[in-house]
TrEMBL record:
<feature type="active site" description="Proton acceptor">
    <location>
        <position position="182"/>
    </location>
</feature>
<feature type="binding site">
    <location>
        <position position="113"/>
    </location>
    <ligand>
        <name>3-methyl-2-oxobutanoate</name>
    </ligand>
</feature>
<feature type="binding site">
    <location>
        <begin position="45"/>
        <end position="46"/>
    </location>
    <ligand>
        <name>3-methyl-2-oxobutanoate</name>
    </ligand>
</feature>
<dbReference type="Pfam" id="PF02548">
    <property type="entry name" value="Pantoate_transf"/>
</dbReference>
<keyword id="KW-0479">Metal-binding</keyword>
<feature type="binding site">
    <location>
        <position position="45"/>
    </location>
    <ligand>
        <name>Mg(2+)</name>
    </ligand>
</feature>
<dbReference type="InterPro" id="IPR040442">
    <property type="entry name" value="Pyrv_kinase-like_dom_sf"/>
</dbReference>
<dbReference type="GO" id="GO:0003864">
    <property type="term" value="F:3-methyl-2-oxobutanoate hydroxymethyltransferase activity"/>
</dbReference>
<comment type="pathway">
    <text>Cofactor biosynthesis; (R)-pantothenate biosynthesis; (R)-pantoate from 3-methyl-2-oxobutanoate: step 1/2.</text>
</comment>
<dbReference type="InterPro" id="IPR015813">
    <property type="entry name" value="Pyrv/PenolPyrv_kinase-like_dom"/>
</dbReference>
<dbReference type="InterPro" id="IPR003700">
    <property type="entry name" value="Pantoate_hydroxy_MeTrfase"/>
</dbReference>
<keyword id="KW-0808">Transferase</keyword>
<protein>
    <recommendedName>
        <fullName>3-methyl-2-oxobutanoate hydroxymethyltransferase</fullName>
        <ecNumber>2.1.2.11</ecNumber>
    </recommendedName>
</protein>
<comment type="subunit">
    <text>Homodecamer; pentamer of dimers.</text>
</comment>
<keyword id="KW-0566">Pantothenate biosynthesis</keyword>
<feature type="binding site">
    <location>
        <position position="84"/>
    </location>
    <ligand>
        <name>3-methyl-2-oxobutanoate</name>
    </ligand>
</feature>
<comment type="similarity">
    <text>Belongs to the PanB family.</text>
</comment>
Length: 265
Protein backbone atom coordinates (compact mmCIF):
# COMPACT_ATOMS: atom_id res chain seq x y z
CA UNK A 1 0.00 0.00 0.00
CA UNK A 2 0.97 3.64 -0.36
CA UNK A 3 2.39 5.36 2.74
CA UNK A 4 -0.36 6.71 5.00
CA UNK A 5 -0.29 10.50 5.13
CA UNK A 6 -2.00 13.05 7.32
CA UNK A 7 -4.02 14.04 4.25
CA UNK A 8 -5.29 10.47 3.90
CA UNK A 9 -6.15 10.20 7.61
CA UNK A 10 -8.10 13.45 7.45
CA UNK A 11 -9.95 12.20 4.37
CA UNK A 12 -10.81 8.96 6.19
CA UNK A 13 -12.23 10.99 9.09
CA UNK A 14 -14.28 13.13 6.67
CA UNK A 15 -15.60 10.05 4.83
CA UNK A 16 -16.41 8.15 8.02
CA UNK A 17 -13.88 5.42 7.14
CA UNK A 18 -12.63 4.01 10.43
CA UNK A 19 -8.92 4.34 11.28
CA UNK A 20 -7.10 1.40 12.93
CA UNK A 21 -4.27 2.28 15.29
CA UNK A 22 -2.27 0.08 17.70
CA UNK A 23 0.67 0.69 19.96
CA UNK A 24 3.96 -0.72 18.70
CA UNK A 25 7.40 -0.68 20.23
CA UNK A 26 9.77 -2.71 18.03
CA UNK A 27 10.76 -3.48 14.44
CA UNK A 28 9.25 -6.99 14.21
CA UNK A 29 5.80 -5.91 15.37
CA UNK A 30 6.06 -2.82 13.15
CA UNK A 31 6.53 -5.12 10.14
CA UNK A 32 3.63 -7.39 11.20
CA UNK A 33 1.22 -4.52 12.01
CA UNK A 34 2.08 -2.65 8.83
CA UNK A 35 1.52 -5.80 6.73
CA UNK A 36 -1.83 -6.39 8.48
CA UNK A 37 -3.06 -2.97 7.38
CA UNK A 38 -2.84 -1.04 10.66
CA UNK A 39 -3.00 2.64 9.65
CA UNK A 40 -1.15 4.17 12.61
CA UNK A 41 1.59 2.77 14.87
CA UNK A 42 1.73 4.57 18.21
CA UNK A 43 5.03 4.27 20.00
CA UNK A 44 3.29 4.90 23.30
CA UNK A 45 4.86 5.61 26.63
CA UNK A 46 2.69 2.67 27.74
CA UNK A 47 5.95 0.83 26.98
CA UNK A 48 6.90 1.77 30.53
CA UNK A 49 4.21 -0.60 31.72
CA UNK A 50 4.09 -3.34 29.08
CA UNK A 51 7.80 -3.56 28.21
CA UNK A 52 9.49 -2.28 31.36
CA UNK A 53 7.03 -3.63 33.96
CA UNK A 54 6.58 -0.30 35.71
CA UNK A 55 3.36 0.65 37.55
CA UNK A 56 2.82 3.81 35.44
CA UNK A 57 4.18 5.70 32.42
CA UNK A 58 5.83 8.39 34.55
CA UNK A 59 9.40 7.00 34.70
CA UNK A 60 9.80 6.64 30.90
CA UNK A 61 12.60 8.83 29.50
CA UNK A 62 12.91 10.70 26.21
CA UNK A 63 15.97 8.58 25.32
CA UNK A 64 13.92 5.40 25.79
CA UNK A 65 11.13 6.78 23.62
CA UNK A 66 13.60 7.79 20.88
CA UNK A 67 15.13 4.28 20.96
CA UNK A 68 11.75 2.59 20.46
CA UNK A 69 10.70 5.06 17.75
CA UNK A 70 13.90 4.15 15.88
CA UNK A 71 13.15 0.43 16.21
CA UNK A 72 9.59 0.86 14.93
CA UNK A 73 10.65 3.13 12.06
CA UNK A 74 13.11 0.44 10.86
CA UNK A 75 10.42 -2.26 10.67
CA UNK A 76 7.68 -0.06 9.23
CA UNK A 77 7.07 0.65 5.54
CA UNK A 78 3.80 2.50 5.13
CA UNK A 79 2.02 3.13 8.44
CA UNK A 80 1.87 6.58 10.07
CA UNK A 81 4.16 6.60 13.13
CA UNK A 82 3.39 8.63 16.27
CA UNK A 83 5.88 9.00 19.13
CA UNK A 84 4.71 9.87 22.64
CA UNK A 85 6.45 12.75 24.37
CA UNK A 86 7.08 11.25 27.82
CA UNK A 87 6.34 12.84 31.18
CA UNK A 88 8.73 15.70 31.93
CA UNK A 89 9.83 16.21 28.31
CA UNK A 90 7.38 19.04 27.41
CA UNK A 91 5.80 20.40 30.60
CA UNK A 92 8.50 22.99 31.35
CA UNK A 93 8.29 25.22 28.28
CA UNK A 94 7.60 25.46 24.56
CA UNK A 95 11.35 25.36 24.01
CA UNK A 96 11.66 22.08 25.89
CA UNK A 97 8.71 20.66 23.93
CA UNK A 98 10.38 21.66 20.64
CA UNK A 99 13.70 20.03 21.60
CA UNK A 100 11.96 16.84 22.70
CA UNK A 101 9.71 16.68 19.65
CA UNK A 102 12.71 17.22 17.35
CA UNK A 103 14.44 14.25 18.99
CA UNK A 104 11.47 11.93 18.25
CA UNK A 105 11.02 13.27 14.71
CA UNK A 106 14.72 12.66 14.02
CA UNK A 107 14.30 9.13 15.38
CA UNK A 108 11.66 8.52 12.69
CA UNK A 109 8.31 9.67 14.09
CA UNK A 110 5.88 11.41 11.71
CA UNK A 111 3.99 13.04 14.56
CA UNK A 112 4.36 13.52 18.31
CA UNK A 113 1.68 13.11 20.94
CA UNK A 114 1.32 15.02 24.19
CA UNK A 115 -1.22 14.82 27.00
CA UNK A 116 -3.54 17.42 28.45
CA UNK A 117 -5.73 20.38 27.56
CA UNK A 118 -5.74 24.12 28.25
CA UNK A 119 -2.09 24.79 29.05
CA UNK A 120 -0.98 22.56 26.12
CA UNK A 121 -2.66 24.65 23.40
CA UNK A 122 0.25 27.14 23.07
CA UNK A 123 2.74 24.24 22.92
CA UNK A 124 0.71 22.56 20.18
CA UNK A 125 0.64 25.84 18.24
CA UNK A 126 4.44 26.26 18.54
CA UNK A 127 5.12 22.73 17.31
CA UNK A 128 2.54 22.82 14.51
CA UNK A 129 3.80 26.19 13.23
CA UNK A 130 7.29 24.69 13.03
CA UNK A 131 6.20 21.75 10.89
CA UNK A 132 5.83 19.12 13.59
CA UNK A 133 2.45 17.37 13.39
CA UNK A 134 0.90 17.02 16.83
CA UNK A 135 -1.61 14.57 18.25
CA UNK A 136 -3.30 15.80 21.43
CA UNK A 137 -4.60 13.42 24.11
CA UNK A 138 -7.54 14.15 26.43
CA UNK A 139 -9.65 12.29 28.98
CA UNK A 140 -7.76 9.82 31.15
CA UNK A 141 -4.23 11.07 30.57
CA UNK A 142 -1.96 8.46 32.18
CA UNK A 143 0.89 10.90 32.91
CA UNK A 144 -1.57 12.64 35.29
CA UNK A 145 -2.82 9.43 36.90
CA UNK A 146 -1.91 10.56 40.43
CA UNK A 147 -3.58 13.94 40.03
CA UNK A 148 -6.69 12.27 38.54
CA UNK A 149 -6.97 9.86 41.48
CA UNK A 150 -6.46 6.65 39.49
CA UNK A 151 -7.64 5.04 36.26
CA UNK A 152 -11.19 6.35 36.22
CA UNK A 153 -13.64 7.40 33.50
CA UNK A 154 -13.39 11.14 32.72
CA UNK A 155 -16.07 13.67 31.74
CA UNK A 156 -18.94 11.99 33.56
CA UNK A 157 -20.51 15.18 34.97
CA UNK A 158 -21.65 18.19 32.93
CA UNK A 159 -18.82 20.51 34.01
CA UNK A 160 -16.09 17.97 33.25
CA UNK A 161 -17.70 17.14 29.90
CA UNK A 162 -17.86 20.83 29.00
CA UNK A 163 -14.15 21.28 29.86
CA UNK A 164 -13.25 18.34 27.60
CA UNK A 165 -15.33 19.78 24.72
CA UNK A 166 -13.66 23.16 25.15
CA UNK A 167 -10.14 21.70 25.38
CA UNK A 168 -10.69 19.60 22.24
CA UNK A 169 -11.84 22.66 20.29
CA UNK A 170 -8.93 24.79 21.55
CA UNK A 171 -6.38 22.10 20.61
CA UNK A 172 -7.80 21.73 17.11
CA UNK A 173 -7.75 25.53 16.69
CA UNK A 174 -4.14 25.58 17.90
CA UNK A 175 -3.22 23.23 15.06
CA UNK A 176 -3.42 19.73 16.53
CA UNK A 177 -3.76 17.38 13.55
CA UNK A 178 -5.17 14.47 15.55
CA UNK A 179 -6.74 13.82 18.95
CA UNK A 180 -6.79 10.74 21.19
CA UNK A 181 -9.71 10.45 23.62
CA UNK A 182 -9.18 7.97 26.45
CA UNK A 183 -11.75 6.55 28.88
CA UNK A 184 -14.86 8.71 28.61
CA UNK A 185 -18.57 8.24 27.91
CA UNK A 186 -19.19 7.13 24.32
CA UNK A 187 -21.76 9.89 23.71
CA UNK A 188 -19.30 12.62 24.73
CA UNK A 189 -16.50 11.23 22.53
CA UNK A 190 -18.89 10.95 19.58
CA UNK A 191 -19.98 14.55 20.07
CA UNK A 192 -16.37 15.80 20.20
CA UNK A 193 -15.49 13.77 17.08
CA UNK A 194 -18.44 15.16 15.12
CA UNK A 195 -17.50 18.73 16.06
CA UNK A 196 -13.91 18.49 14.75
CA UNK A 197 -12.47 18.15 11.25
CA UNK A 198 -9.37 16.27 12.50
CA UNK A 199 -9.29 12.51 13.12
CA UNK A 200 -10.22 11.53 16.68
CA UNK A 201 -8.96 8.15 17.87
CA UNK A 202 -10.67 6.56 20.86
CA UNK A 203 -9.61 4.08 23.54
CA UNK A 204 -12.40 3.24 25.95
CA UNK A 205 -14.35 6.09 24.31
CA UNK A 206 -16.94 4.21 22.25
CA UNK A 207 -17.53 3.57 18.57
CA UNK A 208 -18.33 7.16 17.59
CA UNK A 209 -14.71 8.23 17.10
CA UNK A 210 -12.90 8.34 13.73
CA UNK A 211 -10.84 5.33 14.75
CA UNK A 212 -9.64 3.15 17.60
CA UNK A 213 -6.41 2.40 19.42
CA UNK A 214 -5.52 -0.36 21.88
CA UNK A 215 -2.32 -1.29 23.63
CA UNK A 216 -0.87 -4.13 21.52
CA UNK A 217 -0.20 -6.43 24.47
CA UNK A 218 -3.78 -5.96 25.73
CA UNK A 219 -5.44 -6.94 22.44
CA UNK A 220 -3.10 -9.93 22.19
CA UNK A 221 -4.41 -11.16 25.55
CA UNK A 222 -1.06 -10.77 27.31
CA UNK A 223 -2.46 -8.60 30.09
CA UNK A 224 -1.70 -9.81 33.62
CA UNK A 225 -4.93 -9.94 35.60
CA UNK A 226 -8.31 -8.69 34.47
CA UNK A 227 -8.07 -6.32 31.49
CA UNK A 228 -10.05 -3.06 31.47
CA UNK A 229 -13.63 -3.22 30.18
CA UNK A 230 -12.78 -1.56 26.84
CA UNK A 231 -10.21 -4.22 25.82
CA UNK A 232 -11.03 -7.08 23.48
CA UNK A 233 -8.67 -10.05 23.22
CA UNK A 234 -8.32 -10.66 19.47
CA UNK A 235 -6.35 -13.91 19.94
CA UNK A 236 -9.34 -15.78 21.41
CA UNK A 237 -10.46 -17.07 18.00
CA UNK A 238 -7.02 -18.69 17.63
CA UNK A 239 -4.65 -18.53 14.68
CA UNK A 240 -1.46 -16.53 14.33
CA UNK A 241 -0.58 -13.16 15.86
CA UNK A 242 -0.84 -11.69 12.36
CA UNK A 243 -4.37 -13.11 12.06
CA UNK A 244 -5.36 -11.49 15.38
CA UNK A 245 -4.06 -8.14 14.17
CA UNK A 246 -5.95 -8.55 10.88
CA UNK A 247 -9.13 -9.32 12.86
CA UNK A 248 -8.61 -6.12 14.86
CA UNK A 249 -8.23 -4.04 11.69
CA UNK A 250 -11.34 -5.66 10.18
CA UNK A 251 -13.38 -5.14 13.36
CA UNK A 252 -12.41 -1.46 13.61
CA UNK A 253 -13.13 -0.92 9.91
CA UNK A 254 -16.59 -2.55 9.97
CA UNK A 255 -17.53 -0.96 13.30
CA UNK A 256 -17.92 -4.24 15.22
CA UNK A 257 -15.21 -3.14 17.67
CA UNK A 258 -15.82 -1.53 20.05
CA UNK A 259 -19.23 -2.94 20.90
CA UNK A 260 -21.19 -0.38 22.95
CA UNK A 261 -22.82 -2.91 25.29
CA UNK A 262 -19.56 -4.74 26.02
CA UNK A 263 -16.87 -2.07 25.82
CA UNK A 264 -18.63 1.30 26.23
CA UNK A 265 -19.09 3.71 29.15
O1 LIG B 1 0.93 5.13 25.52
C1 LIG B 1 -0.11 4.67 25.02
O2 LIG B 1 -0.27 3.45 24.80
C2 LIG B 1 -1.19 5.61 24.72
C3 LIG B 1 -2.49 5.06 24.23
C4 LIG B 1 -3.18 4.31 25.30
C5 LIG B 1 -3.36 6.09 23.62
O3 LIG B 1 -1.00 6.79 24.86
NA1 LIG C 1 0.82 7.31 26.03
Amino acid sequence: RKPITLHRLRAMHAAGEKIAMLTCYDATFARVLDAAGVDILLVGDSLGMVLQGRPSTLPVSLAEMAYHVECVARGNRSAWVIGDLPFGSYQASAEQALDSAARLMQAGAHMVKLEGGGWTAPLVRQLAERGIPVCAHLGLTPQSVHALGGWRVQGRDDAAAETLRRHAKELAEAGAAMLVLELMPSALAAEITAALDIPVIGIGAGAGCSGQVLVLHDMLGLNAGKPPRFVRDFTREGGSVAAAIERYVAAVRDGSFPDEAQHGY
